[in-house]
Amino acid sequence: MTDSNGTIKVGEKIYDTKVMPGTIGPSVLDIGSFYGKTGMFTYDPGFTSTASCESKITYIDGDAGVLLYRGYPIEQVAEHGDFLETCYLLLYGELPTAAQKADFDYRVTRHTMVHEQMARFFQGFRRDAHPMAVMVASVGALSAFYHDSTDISDPQQRMIASMRMIAKLPTLAAMAYKYTVGQPFVYPKNDLDYTSNFLRMCFAVPCEEYKVNPIIARALDRIFILHADHEQNASTSTVRLAGSSGANPFACIAAGIACLWGPAHGGANEAALAMLAEIGSVENIPKFVARAKDKNDNFRLMGFGHRVYKNYDPRAKIMQKTAHEVLNELGIKDDPLLDVAVELERIALHDEYFVEKKLYPNIDFYSGITLKAMGFPTSMFTVLFAVARTVGWIAQWREMIEDPSQKIGRPRQLYTGSPRRDYIPSSKR
Ligand code: CMC
Prior knowledge:
This protein has 429 residues and is mostly helical. The protein has helices at 34-38, 74-80, 83-92, 98-109, 117-123, 131-145, 155-181, 194-203, 214-227, 234-244, 249-260, 268-279, 285-293, 314-329, 336-350, 352-356, 364-374, 381-401; strands spanning 7-10, 13-16, 18-20, 28-30, 58-61, 66-69, 72-73. The structure holds carboxymethyl coenzyme *A. Carboxymethyl coenzyme *A (CMC) is lined by residues 230, 233, 264-266, 268, 292, 300-307, 357, 359, 362-364.
């Protein structure tokens, strides 16, 4: 047991620990010396009660449904800013002045092209490769192309690597898409803003003029803002852990992308859309809700529930509005998937099981419908998440590298395997 002074009682023994307060949110108990004092490790699979680092970047109050980037509510950032402004905010800690913003946009824009050799690197993939597999490989491969920004002890190189990744991820993502559909790669066009340029690299073809729809570009930009950072989630923790060994930043971000791919994390938007399609029509919803509630059935309502939010995910509200805006703009009046989504949300928000377990729609519930309407295939959904989250990963990686108390991440374990035993030669087994 612990008391408010941070003393922990184990059996009859009392140990002093330090309570570290945050600016907002729960304080933490500093248990760094706990093993040395007690000979015991603490046990917290899934890190549900463990703060792995100190951070000044993003704050979440999951019970209240609050998300702040550097102190600013996500609703305000998404409504008033653009994605590159969010990148600046996350990286530097403050909103940019007009001059700082113009300079930042210019610097990102100068890095949008990838080494021409990268195009040949792509030829080695099968055409039906999942674009996330291509992303893991190609982002990792950036470290083979940009040796001059892999020295993590040099702040200048850290900044160049950061700018390179923010700028080149959309280019690589668009190339991953173009490769799967068998169309030529489209080079970046630097007089377009970040998101318009990305849309053009995905959907333009050399034989036709491509006009960016500003409403769709603004909607996608907002989706990027919503996904930009989310404190110490699985992929961010992966990036920090990989970075704690001194690995180069491109390798660390590739590790984050690999982690994001899983269906319980970034892969959920793809899974949520597949589930809506499987449900098919409003009449089938009760059957699927009953399956989600059945303990003997491992079916879950994808796009519902969150490790941290035990209230409506604030990003999901903005995402829902964005979904309606995009469908209206594209003249999609009767999308059966949207009908199923709206009704499923209504039922789940009133169903005792979901209410009691505080399972609210998360950001992925509406993002799949929106991205599909924009023309992205489901296999690209998690790739778009990776494009947006890159800045969050980088900001967190840099914060870790610049933290003087940083050391290699090395969790311990509760060993429950065999005690020591002697090897038996195969003839005697
Ligand atoms: N449908 C039905 N039941 C659920 C769901 C769901 N989507 N999510 C959680 N539960 C139940 C679960 O069965 C458990 O019940 P019980 O206590 O009776 O065993 C209880 O709620 C708590 O679930 P948990 O798995 O212990 O909660 P968690 O915090 O470990 O999991 C989660 C969070 C997001 C992995 C989970 O809610 C889930 O699998 N949701 C569906 C996948 C999804 O939408 N993921 C996107 C997350 S948001 C994007 C991101 O940040 O990457």
